[in-house]
Write a structure and sequence with these properties.
CATH class of the largest domain: Mainly Alpha
Mean pLDDT: 82
Number of domains: 2
Number of helices: 9
Structural class: mainly alpha
Largest sheet: none
Shape: globular
Order of helices and strands: HHHHHHHHH
Oligomer: single chain
Distance between the termini: 106 Å
Low-confidence stretches: 1-37
Strand content: under 5%
CATH topology of the largest domain: Cytochrome Bc1 Complex, Chain D, domain 2
Helix content: 55-70%
Number of strands: 0
Length: 212
């Protein structure tokens, strides 16, 4: 047995050397890849919001085309605890990465997917929008004033959840929004959500009239 091992010792040493080298090399490569992903501030964002800003689940908001300053304010609100985060990672985004993330999603041009809405709620929501929301959420939610987010073509489950969150106190009212909410029922807020969800993110293009 000892004679066999002495004869095979160089080969055994070479084999173990190869195994150890492979562990060191591929282990370091795997660790490097993991660290690279962990250090990528966009990696966790993309998992839920995609690289194009379209939410990957119905209750996840679309971020594409949202004004950069509003996205920056949202991220700052998560970091400072002024806005309740839905997931833990919201509070773990490095402050130094907030501007880059906001800029990225504000520049995305992806088309938000169409979603089914209730026609009766849509009609009711339009009436309420004109009475209560139009001053801040301009052009059916495609534009904004007074720091209001763009709401046109936003995810319906997300819109319903967020409009109700203000009423329950989970989220604090921004400027003038408490007055707009006065006496609105849960059914009213749901109808407004259906109205915003039914809109196109971009205004429909009108064809030019031919001159006679």
């Amino acid at each position: 047995m000892n004679d066999w091992f002495r004869m095979r010792k160089p080969a055994v040493q070479r084999r173990w050397h190869g195994i150890v080298t492979a562990i060191l090399v591929f282990g370091s490569v795997g660790a490097h890849a993991q660290n690279a992903q962990g250090n990528d501030p966009m990696a966790n964002c993309i998992e839920c919001h995609g690289s194009n800003g379209i939410g990957t689940e119905p209750d996840i908001p679309h971020l594409n085309g949202m004004p950069e300053h509003l996205l920056s304010a949202m991220l700052e609100g998560f970091r400072r605890g002024k806005r309740p985060p839905k997931v833990r990672i919201h509070r773990e985004i490095p402050q130094a990465s907030e501007a880059m993330i906001a800029r990225h999603y504000s520049q995305q041009k992806a088309e938000r997917p169409k979603q089914p809405v209730d026609p009766a709620l849509l009609a009711r929501g339009q009436s309420l929008y004109e009475q209560r929301c139009a001053d801040c959420h301009l052009d059916n939610g495609r534009d904004s004033d007074k720091e209001a987010p763009l709401t046109a073509a936003q995810s319906l489950p997300y819109l319903i959840a967020q409009t109700l969150a203000f009423k329950t106190g989970e989220r604090k009212f921004p400027y003038l929004m408490d007055g707009a909410y006065k006496d609105l029922s849960d059914a009213d807020l749901t109808a407004i959500a259906h109205f915003f969800a039914a809109q196109d993110q971009e205004a429909p293009k009108r064809g030019r009239r031919r001159r006679r």
